[in-house]
Automatic annotation (TrEMBL):
Entries under Gene3D superfamilies matching the protein: Glycosidases
GO molecular function list: beta-glucosidase activity
A cellular-component GO term for this protein: cell surface
Span of domain Glycoside hydrolase family: 49-334
Biological process annotations from GO: glucan catabolic process
InterPro entries recorded: GH (IPR017853), Glyco_hydro_5 (IPR001547), Glycosyl_hydrolase_5 (IPR050386)
UniProt signal peptide: 1-18
Keyword Signal: yes
Family: Belongs to the glycosyl hydrolase 5 (cellulase A) family.
Keywords, in A-Z order: Carbohydrate metabolism, Glycosidase, Hydrolase, Polysaccharide degradation, Signal
UniProt keyword GTP-binding, yes or no: no
Lineage: Eukaryota, Fungi, Fungi incertae sedis, Chytridiomycota, Chytridiomycota incertae sedis
Name of the protein described by the UniProt record: Endoglucanase
Length: 357
């Protein structure tokens, strides 16, 4: 065989993905969220440029140095939340400058041999409209994914698309607490969105025919996502996403609120047991059935919290995820990793990840 033919064959092989989704999840290691950045939005923002949005919630413009800084702490994956509606026309055409900026950030990540997850993130709340304006909402959802798929289809397999963030639940359609309403309609909306997402990406060609995809769980809540009403599209390269902020009285409440009493500490035997049981539930439903799980966000506020409890919570979530074959992504709105000095504000948190792999 002529050398040129061998090279052609090798070239052909290199464009098909070598990695299964199970191999991928192992290689993803531990992850970090580039939070409060490309998903920053608000009607008050003078949004004539991408930069005005990107910096509007107080973070500096993202640089490749920040990505290298995160990598130096042992992280191998970065989630990039994006609000696409910031720069979108009335016919849902996304401004090319926003697509280009998102690609630039994704390239910072994959050029450093890390994995990037990119999604549609909250996006100023329009996912609520699926409950009332279903058809129009699906049109918008499809148009956004058609454009992203097309624009990113030549990017290599280190880029993973995520169907949406945690907005896939509609309490006006089905109330999760009182169990009133039409449960199958509520789940049906999310199931259809995830199926639309998979179909659009796969049909767009290029590297998207085999790209690994992440599907949002119902509310990204463990109990609601293991419910049999949640359906995973049939596809060899999909993973499911849930978030972990339990107990919310510890992770979210800085002060007492009408719905709960702020809890300053975490880590008793029964609390750890509760966490392990949560992870076991999600592992049994998905991981053990060949569908890897990504903990797309977890974290805790630090104000009014016992610092040892904070460390223990972050470490326990990350370790339990890895032990269960899942990839954990620390939520960071700018409060953990200092994006100017490129070190963790609390070095003990950075150390948790440095020693993990
Ligand atoms: C919005 O930003 C643009 C570009 O920086 C600037 O020219 C314009 O004056 C700003 N508008 C307001 C109302 O501040
Ligand atoms: C897939 O990605 C690789 C690496 O970026 C690129 O060289 C190749 O052209 C892409 N293939 C397709 C079909 O887009």
């Amino acid at each position: 065989m002529k050398l040129v033919n061998i090279l052609t064959i090798l070239g052909g092989i290199s464009t098909t993905y070598a990695m299964t989704v199970q191999e991928l999840i192992k290689d993803m290691g531990v992850g970090w969220n580039l939070g409060n950045t490309l998903e920053a939005c608000g009607d008050w923002i003078n949004g004539s440029t991408v930069k005005q949005y990107e910096t509007s919630w107080g973070n500096p413009e993202t640089t490749e140095e920040m990505i290298k800084g995160i990598k130096s702490y042992g992280f191998k994956s970065i989630r990039v939340p994006v609000a696409w509606s910031n720069l979108i026309a009335s016919d849902y055409t996304i401004n090319p400058l926003l697509l280009a900026r998102a690609k630039e950030i994704v390239n910072y990540i994959i050029n450093n041999d890390m994995y990037a997850i990119m999604n549609i993130h909250w996006d100023n709340g329009w996912f609520e409209n699926f409950a009332t304006k279903e058809e129009e909402s699906f049109t918008k959802y499809r148009r956004i994914w058609e454009q992203i798929s097309d624009y990113f289809k030549d990017v290599n397999e280190n880029l993973i698309f995520e169907s949406l963030n945690e907005e896939g639940c509609w309490n006006t359609v089905w109330n999760r607490w009182s169990n009133q309403g039409d449960k199958s309609k509520a789940y049906g909306l999310l199931n259809e969105m995830n199926q639309n997402f998979v179909d659009i990406v796969r049909n767009s060609g290029g590297n998207n025919t085999e790209r690994h995809l992440l599907l949002a769980g119902y509310c990204t809540d463990i109990d609601l996502t293991i419910d049999e009403a949640y359906v995973v599209p049939k596809d060899d390269r999909v993973m499911v996403s849930v978030h972990y902020y339990t107990p919310s009285t510890f992770t979210i409440l800085e002060e007492d609120a009408d719905w709960g009493k702020a809890q300053p500490t975490w880590g008793s035997e029964s609390e750890v047991e509760y966490l392990l049981n949560d992870f076991k539930k999600i592992k049994t439903r998905f991981v053990d059935n060949g569908i890897p799980v990504v903990i797309g966000e977890y974290g805790t506020v630090t104000k009014n919290k016992d610092i040892n409890s904070v460390h223990k919570f972050l470490k326990t979530v990350a370790e339990t995820s890895l032990n269960s074959g899942m990839c954990p992504f620390l939520w960071d709105n700018g409060e953990h990793f200092n994006r100017k000095t490129l070190v963790f504000r609390d070095e003990a948190i950075g150390e948790i990840y440095k020693v993990m792999l």
